[in-house]
Design goal:
Elements lengths: L5 E7 L3 H8 L10 E3 L7 E6 L3 E11 L3 E11 L12 E9 L2 E9 L8 H22 L17 H8 L3
Antiparallel strand pairs: 1-7, 2-3, 3-4, 4-5, 5-6, 6-7
Length: about 170
């Protein structure tokens, strides 16, 4: 049975350790607007992009040089009818060796075509994984969203809700 979850893969010359370390540095490839720890099992962090997208993630599986799984604890989009579409989904990074190269297989489990955000999110993940994360892995520099002033109570009401852990 074919899965409808969003997936993409890339193949690089760098080691599994270099790929693993890059994944665990989402400030270097996804967004500089991340608050919290992003490396160890049970770490939690909040991702923020203007008032458009705010997510709270928890690392639920971390196998060095092989796998990282983020669980989306909470989510807010300002451009969908169901602003919490990602909530309860998993973002999975699997690292394998393939012909003296390292393959990264990315899956956003639960990001399916029925979601209103699917097309926008598919394009976003495609760019972040295949361009920014690839660049961080291969050159040491990604293209994350820049920091825009940090988290504060005036940022957006959804930010306060997610940071406080409320629905």
């Amino acid at each position: 049975m074919k899965t409808l979850d969003f997936t993409t893969s890339l193949l690089v010359d760098q080691t599994p350790e270099e790929v693993f370390n890059a994944i665990n540095n989402p400030r270097g490839w996804w967004s500089e607007e991340i608050e919290g720890s992003t490396e160890k099992l049970n770490d939690e962090f909040t991702y923020h992009y203007k008032d458009v997208h705010i997510s709270k993630m928890k690392l639920i599986e971390v196998i060095p040089n092989k796998k990282v799984v983020w669980f989306v604890m909470d989510n807010y989009f300002n451009f969908t009818k169901d602003s919490s579409e990602w909530k309860g989904t998993k973002i999975i990074f699997e690292i394998t060796q393939k012909d003296n190269k390292t393959q990264l297989h990315f899956t956003h489990q639960g990001l399916v075509p029925e979601y209103e955000c699917y097309d926008v999110c598919r394009k976003g993940w495609g760019n972040y994984i295949n361009n920014s994360l690839r660049s961080l892995i291969t050159t040491g520099k990604g293209q994350p969203n820049p920091k825009e002033g940090g988290f504060n109570e005036q940022q957006h009401p959804s930010d306060r809700i997610i940071r406080a852990g409320k629905k």
